[in-house]
Amino acid sequence: MELNGAQILVQSLKDEGVEFLFGYPGGAVLHLYDALFHQQDIKHILVRHEQGATHAADGYARATGKPGVVLVTSGPGATNAVTGIATAHLDSIPMVVISGQVPTPVIGSDAFQEVDMVGITRPCVKHNFLVKDVNKLAETVKKAFHVATTGRPGPVVIDIPKDITDPNIKVPYKYPRKVSMRSYNPVVKGHKKQIRKAVDLLLSAKKPMIYSGGGVILGEAHKQLIEFTRLLGYPITNTLMGLGAYPATDKQFVGMLGMHGTYEANMSMHESDVIIAIGARFDDRVTGKLDEFCPYAKIIHIDVDPASIAKNVMVDVPIVGEVKPVLETMIEMINEDEKRPDKKALVKWWEQIAKWQALDSLAYDRNSDLIKPQYVIEQLYEVTKGNAFVTSDVGQHQMYAAQFYHFDKPRRWINSGGLGTMGFGLPAAIGVKLAHPKSDVACVTGEASIQMCIQELSTALQYKTPVKIVNLNNRYMGMVRQWQEFTYESRYSHSYMDTIPDFVKLAEAYGHVGMRIEKPEDVRSAFEEAFAMKDRTVFMDFMTDRTENVYPMIEAGKAHHEMRLRVPPGTPVDRELA
Amino acid sequence: MRHIISILIENESGALSRVAGLFSARGYNIESLTVAPTEDETLSRMTLVTWGDENIIEQITKQLNKLIDVVKLIDLAEAVHIERELMMIKIKTTDETREEIKRMSDIFRGKIIDVAANSYVVEITGPSDKLDAFIAAIDDGSIIEVVRSGPTGISRGENGLRL
To answer: Which of the residues B10, B59, B62, B71 would you substitute to probe the A interface, choosing the one with the greatest number of A C-beta atoms within 10 Å?
Structure first.
């Protein structure tokens, strides 16, 4: 079969099984868009800004496990996509981004809409390619998908000069079934001896902790994680990226850890004698002060990426391999082992944890006349019965969602954890809704974040992706304001906006339903009404308490056991802003 | 501690910038970097001199290995190895100094490869500290130009870095 470059790309995507292509046309990709015009298999989703395309593809990838695919033009199209690529990179999300490039003969001449996309994206992709020969296009696409989806996943960019997609140059097409790269062979199974060592250490623990992260979700290992955790009876904490891998409503779950994790999760980490980190990367938001991180613990670390091991924290038993096969081997070994977890020690350990839990570190003022953001999330959880896919932007609302929406299943919590990208939530929700049209999808956001990609409300209408936007509107960049309150003596430098749009009218202008909710007693009925409108995107603008802070908190430079807890409600400090 | 890392990398455009970019992005030290194709034209060999404590070097080798284009690498400093660097040094000459420079060059087993009315170019090969010693032995004021290749290295014995 002879095809031109544009047709080769489209056919390669079909052969790769791509359902959705999130993109925006422009000069350098016009041949490609013409080829797309002649086919029905791949559905193109026209966004309103290329950042939206990458986030939507990212949301799709997180909700399905399949790679998200993006098509943008050269120059500004490509640079607009960079934030979304970096977002996917820091959270290890499989994504293939195809960018147009100026024709090969003019590369390097500062041609119209030319940027060095391979150079710009080099530090924020897993790998990138510049295609210089149409005969290598299909193979390059295959390699891109292979690299993006195997090992530690990540985004891959394919930069395609316009002459490569020239409709007049036809070459034989065959999509390679398999690809092998001599320089890329990710490790799958862990080293048996290391796993043995880890099991011995785990079974000798008196105060064990299981600390699992996004790698469990990416590696589809949640079932193994649950089996492993129940088998041992040990407490488990999840990172922000790992929420949903272990059911949040289970009694062994002690909540999220880290900067805004629960008191019990962080104290347990601090006091633990054996920690097993599973698909987690000891991010600074998790560890707090490194010198005082888990001072009494021996640490086991399972990660598919050898470079993640001993990067921030030295570990005692490193295991390089995919989480799923390693956990399977561990479960097998534990079952065969005569030694059992130390029951007596474990009872004592759980008693200690119960004492920390009794502190109720997530408590907030439930008698307030104002809408508390935590309450909104609790109601969202109840009305959706915990079954919604929840995307979020970045800031206080993100932490409230992580703390108060109890995720029992993986791939339901979709947020930008590593890069912390404001503007992620809405386009990601569109991507999720396309993947799961029958499920409820909520985007928890704030009035600052939502405005960073609000144009995608238009995309939501065009492709009928009825998502529910939960805007926690406190008229502040809440998290910035909180840090300014804590560390800059409440000098709120440029962290609030005087001119916030009327979101109800804005939603209506985009063809959606807008609601403003100003009283706590209206919160639940608003959700019930909104989620009953199955085929409409609803923008719920909740006017929340401006002074509310996220507690508990490990402030910068502090350790796990130095958490700042909530000031009792009603004290002057808490009310200072009102 | 100083480490010399040898890398086999796909001979593709941009491969060098991936390595160089990694060092600047992660704040690793880089003292020198040499690169040239090997007998297999699809592969380039890079020799990179860096320094750092054990943990940093471990991270450097892991991060380098993570680059998709890197096929294989070794830290030569971990075993016995040979290092060589090439230097060409242009030195001002006068009737009085010519003989002395020739003698010095002989002592360092250098070669005079260019002779002009008022200058010599001396070529010297050896470990980097030998080249440093030669520079120190020559009067500062008479050095016109120094060109150094940066060290390359190879392990001793029959084992080699190959596919």
So the answer is: B62
